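Practice problem 4.
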């Protein structure tokens, strides 16, 4: 496929991962989840805003009893982590004794997920795992065991399929990488 280039704000981005590849990876992860959580009733906690598209496509492929809820927790401004991780917002479920699966769009420094896990663990769930669409292993600054990863990528800024650049790009069906 011919690469496509787009401009968002002041930056140029080029196609990096096409929708077909994303969906294929999601189907594999969904099968894995169905095996790992057979006979359980997992609670998926999707971290907004970035995970909305990933969450929708993932949940459409999960054929077992499960619950889904949305929380919010952002640490990102512009293109670099501020390190200012906020509190979990919007968690109304009682997660004590539940098998929780946190759905993320991207894990890079791990600051956000690390803080989230600390706060969730205080509420004594039976288990917690993380599923993420993208992971930047080069950036990771915490001891995190991310069990489900659709794709590991180098440390390049990406947008699309839920991920934004200063608010733009979340609606794109493919993932784009910044043109260096
Ligand atoms: N793109 C968009 N949002 C992000 C990224 C990225 O590469 N890394 C962390 N948040
Ligand atoms: Mg963002």
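Answer key:
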């Amino acid at each position: 496929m011919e690469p496509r280039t787009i401009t968002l704000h002041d930056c140029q981005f080029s196609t990096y991962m096409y929708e077909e590849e994303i969906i294929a990876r999601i189907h594999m992860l969904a099968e894995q989840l169905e095996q790992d959580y057979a006979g359980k009733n997992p609670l998926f906690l999707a971290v907004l805003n970035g995970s909305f598209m990933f969450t929708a496509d993932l949940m459409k492929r999960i054929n077992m009893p499960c619950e889904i809820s949305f929380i919010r927790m952002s640490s990102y401004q512009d293109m670099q982590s501020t390190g200012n991780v906020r509190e979990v917002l919007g968690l109304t479920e009682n997660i004590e004794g539940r098998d929780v699966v946190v759905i993320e769009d991207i894990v890079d420094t791990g600051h956000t997920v690390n803080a989230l896990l600390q706060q969730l663990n205080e509420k004594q769930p039976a288990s917690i795992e993380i599923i993420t669409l993208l992971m930047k292993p080069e950036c990771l600054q915490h001891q995190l065991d991310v069990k489900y990863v659709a794709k590991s990528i180098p440390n390049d800024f990406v947008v699309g399929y839920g991920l934004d650049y200063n608010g733009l790009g979340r609606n794109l069906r493919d993932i784009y990488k910044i043109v260096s």
